[in-house]
Amino acid sequence: MPTSPLTGVLLVNLGTPEAPQTPQVRRYLRQFLGDRRVLTLPAPLRWLLLNLVILPTRPARSAAAYRQVWTAEGSPLLVHSRALCAGVSETLGEGFQVELAMRYGNPSIERGLAQLEAANAERVVVLPLFPQYASSVTASISAEVGRCLDRRGDFPPFEVMGSFYDDPGFIGAWADLSEAALSEFEPDHVLFSFHGLPEDQIRASDPQAGHCLSSAECCALPGSSLRRCYRAQCYRTADALGEALAIDPATRSVAFQSRLGPRPWIQPFTDAVLPELAESGVRRLAVFCPSFVSDCLETLEEIGIRLRKDWEELGGESLWLSPCPNGDPRFSTVVADWIRARA
Question: In whole angstroms, how far apart are CA 257 and each of 168, 241, 260?
Answer without folding.
Answer: 25, 19, 10
